Hints:
By secondary structure, this protein is of the alpha/beta class. The chain contains 16 helices and 13 strands.
Amino acid sequence: MTTPSLTIRPPSGKLAVLLPGLGAVATTFIAGVLLARRGLGSPIGSLTQMGTLRLGGPNGERSSLVRDAVPLATMDDLVFGAWDIFPEDALDVARHAEVLESRHLDPIAEELREIQPMKGAFYARYVRRLNGTHVKEASSKAEMVEHLREDIRSFIRRHGAARAVAIWCGSTEVFLPPSAVHQSIEAFEAGLASDDPGISSSQLYAWACIKERVPFANGAPNLTVDFPAAWLLAKEMRVPLAGKDFKTGQTLLKTILAPGIKARSLGVHGWFSTNILGNRDGEVLDDPDNFKTKEASKLGVLEEILQPQQHPELYGDLYHKVRIEYYPPRGDAKEGWDNLDIFGWLGYPMQIKVNFLCRDSILAAPIVLDLALLLDLAARAGLHGTQEWLGFYFKSPMPTPESRPEHDLFIQSMKLKNTLRWMIGESAERPQGGGSFE
Ligand SMILES: NC(=O)c1ccc[n+]([C@@H]2O[C@H](COP(=O)([O-])OP(=O)(O)OC[C@H]3O[C@@H](n4cnc5c(N)ncnc54)[C@H](O)[C@@H]3O)[C@@H](O)[C@H]2O)c1
């Protein structure tokens, strides 16, 4: 028997999963959970459901499914709520998104039909490609936050939920750097009252959730919870946060490949990545200001993994370029191409070509499930502020003020599992030969 390092409240009662943005990712996630509950599908790609944890110390030979070793809520405990700026219910959205086939949607059609989005908090200047029709009215952004808080309370009441978590699955907003309004709780509250343009729609949801002590994760590259006022409020309210931008598709592969190339001390001259994507996300990203937010998130990855300042001969002149092209015929079935110009012994050049025919929402859905369950675990364990150990799931992992972002998927995975082991009182395994995992 081991002694847990933390007192973790048991996951009793229902867990409300609140999703600002009821689009392709959100409906694919919800449908997958409903199907898995009925034994009609498998939650593949979810570490909490399919992954294992080695127990019994660094040389431990016991291994357990994560969900058996760690006191997580189960998929049966979840109830789903959402906001969107369009009124379609989850069934209509899922049918239009064309991610899942009728054989998967038909058996759960009634349950999906019941998930109707609450009206969204939406200021069009942050997502110009969408013309929302199902939106809240408010005299100020401060009042809008109060409306969202009331939505959260009444959803929890209506569904008899014991706790809630929220995951931003809404569109990517235009690029917004943090400004004076983001630096303190007081400045942010004043900005809400005066409708400061630096405060976007997604930040209103985040603020409302933190105020209601609802843990919040950000699946898009927006600022949302990545600024000092949000961190300070989360500390004050003891709420865990995580972000940002789900790590799926091309970036997932990049953070698998780049550590391997670096481990073998091979050089990289250039890395060109391009995608075609035809869903609503692709349409929003067709606006250069919205793409800029995504680009910043995608570009940081290689710099952090390869560390050119430490290895100037190998990565000092690396040229990294990322493109996303909106191409409607493809829908959600994104296709990504990567060209890597690498070099080896004596500088001889080589090339690697990667062609990933992926499905965006199929890769993102298990991340939403894991984040919901792990953020809830963090809250029940009394953890608050940025949960750096959840960086595994993000393109732009939010670091704590004391740490730098870690992008290497293998170090991220070790950090996550070590944190889980630590929570349940199992001794953590350390990476052999060092590694910045602590
Ligand atoms: N699918 C992936 O692999 C992946 C990876 C990383 C990040 N993301 C991000 O996840 C988000 C969701 O992706 P998706 O494919 O489901 O997109 P989507 O366009 O299908 O869904 C987004 C939904 O958000 C709604 N929305 C926009 N602003 C809103 C607001 N203020 N309030 C409430 N709803 C709002 C839109 O109406 C839409 O229904 C996007 O920001 C995307 O960039 C997706």
